[in-house]
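[Meeting: bench + compute handoff]

Bench side (C.D.) handed over the final construct sequence. Compute side (W.E.) agreed to return the predicted structure before the next meeting so the bench team could plan truncations. Sequence as handed over:
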Amino acid sequence: MAKTDVLYEKQGQIGIITLNRPEKMNAMTNEMFDLFEEIIAQVRKDDDVRAVILTGRGKCFCAGTDLSGDVPLSLETELRYMKSKETTTSTYNMWLFTSIPKPVICAINGPAVGAGSEYPLQCDIRIAAQSARWGEVFVRRGLLPDSGAGTYLLPHIVGFSKAAELCMSGEIIDADEMLRIGLVHQVVPDDQLMPVAMELAKKFLKAAPLAVRMTKQLLYLGLERTIEHHAEATRYCFQLATRTEDMVEGINSFMEKRDPVWKNR
């Protein structure tokens, strides 16, 4: 495996993570998962990165797990994952991309199946190229959605009944159907996918980073909490936000009719 199997670059305040095994349809290996972890740890710590885009290189987003590798994960990899400090029962930290405390956009550039269908679900927003296809094909291999995103997040995205149909049939759907059921919120021509994703990412740069971070946390924690616990957490976060320099800047910039200059504190 080359370190270039997963690429990371910054364009201004936008981080771009790219699956880069086009000759293998970006099929995932254990080593690529390790690269994901390294890159995401870097993104989490980099306050200059305000939004993230996940995509694939070539004509396929991700064809799933590379069946020529260790399937399932090797015992060593499984044990390391289980012992990871980032591994918790919280939905906010359970998956790689939900754990990034900033907006994550998945730009689905082609087929996304198997493990490749799970990554878009972990992203906050999904857009698709017209050539995109998506399918939780696990049951057709005698398996089940491996990260749990299909059985947990997908019902929240498209509704329980449709999620049940997709997960238990392994059907692959096209971009128009992805849009119809709300799996993605936009379908664009293939050559417009990254420009549209970049424009979407730039929208988040106008918002206060700390406020965005707490909002994302509340969105995901809200999936597993009672309304009472969620209300309590919301009050706490709101009170915390009122004590930040960014809140003062947000109000001042509004009153002065100028763009805010966020300090992330």
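W.E. noted at the follow-up: Residues 85-89 have pLDDT under 50 and may be disordered. C.D. will use this when planning the next construct.
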